[in-house]
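ARCHIVE CARD
Drawer: 12
Card no.: 0347
Subject: one protein chain, sequence and derived structure
Cross-reference: see card 0346
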Amino acid sequence: MDPGDQIVANIVNELESAWNAADGVAFARPFAENADFVNIRGEHHRTREAIAKGHQAIFSSVYKGSVVRLQVAAVRTLAPAVLLAHVKSRLKVPTGPLAGEHQALFSLVLVRDQDDWPIVAFHNTLVT
């Protein structure tokens, strides 16, 4: 496995675990402090803190009790310290206005910071 593939796989596993634990702080942990996050509704959030708060809000409301499964679709090295990844998402929401199964595809840009690879940009797109 390419080192970039393993880096992305580890981060995606962390995101999946945090989502399924409904933990906004843990979900935001792999993001850079000044990360950009665009959700499936096209809303733009900036900073790890905003990403954590926004996710905790949805974990406690419209996505309460939801379970996500993430699958890395592709990883590409754009530069020696820059990775681009595409990840497939399948979300099951048990109740509420968004009950049902939803699929999405998101893009991640990771930039090496010493021994770490924080997410600097995340763009999520709903698949209909």
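Annotation on reverse: The chain is about 25% helix and 45% strand. The radius of gyration is 14 Å.
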